[in-house]
Every structure is written in C-alpha cells, then in structure tokens.
Specification:
Largest sheet: 8 strands, antiparallel
Strand order of the largest sheet: 1-2-6-7-10-13-14-15
Number of strands: 16
Bound molecules: adenosine monophosphate, magnesium ion
Number of helices: 11
Distance between the termini: 64 Å
Strand content: 25-35%
Amino acid sequence: MKYSVKKIICFATVVPVLFLSACSFVPQKYTSTDVGMGTIVSQTVYVKGDGKEVTRKVQDLVNRFEEEISWRIETSDVSGINHFAGKEAGYAISKELSDDLRKVWQISADSDGAFDVTIAPVVRLWNIDAKATGNEQSDLLPSDAEIKDKLSLTGYEDVRIEDNIVYLPAGYLIDLGAVGKGMACDRILSLLKDEMGSLSATRPISGQVSVHGAVISLGGNILTYGEKPDGSAWKVGVVDPMNPDAYLGMLTLTGTNFVTTSGDYERYVEIDGERYHHIIDPGTGYPADSGIRSVTILSDSGLVGDALSTACFVLGRDKALELAQEYGVEILLVTDTGELVMSDGMQSVFVEK
Ligand code: AMP
Ligand code: MG
C-alpha cells in the first residue's frame, strides 16, 4: 500500500468538500407559509444558496407593502389619502405608488367604472368581509337609501392624481383590496429578478443566492417565475366556484406568469337563502349579479391581472371577453350555469379535470 495516513486524510476531506460544493450549485427546493395582506402567503422557491433568506425577503416585502397600502393601517399611504379627502393640499405619495395608481385609474376608465377603488364607502357599508369571517354577527342588510347615499360618495372620475399628489373629494375613500395583492406580486417579481439573480446569472458568489424558479401565492393571486430544476412545467389549479374545495382543472405554465382569480365563493354571507358576496357593482351598489361565478386572468402583470379579474366579474361574459382582449390577457370565466368560457390562449394551457 503506497498511500500514507496523511494522504488518506487529505483524500477523505477533499471528496466531501467537492461533493458539497457541487450540491450547492444545484437549486434546492425551499417552502414557507405565512400570513400577509389578509391572506395566506405560500412560497415554493428553487434556490442556489440560502432558500430561507429568499422567502424571508419576500415575506418582508409583503409586510412592508401592506403597511404602505392597507386602509386598516393608520400610517399607510392609503390612510393618508383618505384622511386628506376634501383638503385643498392633496396627499403626496411615492412615485412608484402614484405610477401604479395611474394604471389603476386607467383600468377604471377602460372598464366603464366596473372596477373602481373609490367604491370603498359602499364596501364598508355592506361589510361582507366581517360578516364572512364571523367578526360581525349581524344579519342586517343595508337599505336602498343607505346604498344610494354611499354611492354618491364614489366615482374614480372625481379623483385627481397630479404627479405624486392625490386629491380625493370630501367623504370619498379608497380601498386597494381588489388590486393590492397583484401589485405586491409585481414587486415580488422585481425582487426575485433584480436582487437575487436570474436564470442567466452566474451567481451565487460567496454568500449570495440566486433564484432559479419560484411559485408564490397570495390568496387568489399566484406568481410563477423561472423554471423548476427538472425543467417540468408549473401547474396552477383553478378552483371550482361551485365546490371551492376542488379544482376545475389545471393550467400548465412555463416561465413568468400571473394567475389571478376573483370569485363569489371567496368571501360571502348567506341571508335568507340569498348569497351576498364581496364584489360590488359600482353601477348599482349591490353585489355584482352578472351571471359569473368566477374569473381567472392569466397576464404578465400582477396589477393588471388583479384589477381585470374584479372588473370582468362585474362586467359579465361578453364585456369581460372584450376587455380581456383589449388588454391582451387570457381569461377563463365560469358562468352561473357552470359553463366554462375561455380565450384561445387560455384554452391552450388549461386542462379540465
Ligand atoms: P378581488 O377579490 O380582487 O376581486 O377584490 C375584491 C375586493 O375589492 C372586495 O373585498 C372589496 O374590498 C373591493 N371591491 C369590491 N368591489 C369592487 C369593485 N367593483 N372595484 C374595485 N374594488 C372592489
Ligand atoms: Mg382583483
């Protein structure tokens, strides 16, 4: 035997070190579940480096963004805008948020007001969220007169956004509940791309992480990013609105996508056999009754997908298909008779169960 004891020790340490460093260049799967923006935040990331650092950064981003846009948080920008309603000075927000609000207002205009974040006074009057979660036990419904009264304090056209200053008329309120989670998904995508490397990146260099792929969901808003290490497609389930514990089918997707669903099963209360859900038709002030049970949008922007899913739910089948086409997004509608209506692009990625 030629090997000395010293050489054997060397060999025994070099092999595991080589093996370990090879392993660290294969993306590893890391999952986490937490809460944020009033919903469950679930993350599956495929990462070279520290997966926990990635999911923690994403969760921090969601928490920070909630502090910026939640109307429930006194110090948020949205609370600032609401407190300044009727004041001559208007309320100054960040450039990023004011740019997003301009897109939000454009979608209100393009949907003829079916999507309108100034519907908040009517949303609060109905208080479906609290009724659905059992925080409000009352079976009382608002009267026609109360609804009319609150409707007079709504209308996206009455709001001015000049540079980064928002001017809201007196008595008006905004609530970004219908678009905020989509906006958060856009920011998560930027974080994954810019701060943590992309597929083409040569990282990690010491101490850094690079994200190979991720699927992140904030309630009904799902972001897919990059690829799985084995190259297989992302599978995103579409909930059956008639039986929300089951899926209608699956979307098979590659790369970056935003999948957003709005449905009458998400938050509702049943009173005297009638379902009152959380999506309000700004034209009537009542829960939208457009013959739709759910809308799923596939888009390349979280903000657009989230806003359009709500808008299309209110608009009903024909106008929803038109708006989806106008914005170049794919759409899947479930009607109240259980019929599935899809754009061509959606048809090519959806497989019914
Ligand atoms: P989503 O689940 O994304 O469709 O958003 C529904 C939430 O947005 C509701 O819980 C309300 O807070 C708010 N909302 C309800 N109706 C509308 C509407 N027509 N336009 C904008 N926001 C709405
Ligand atoms: Mg929405």
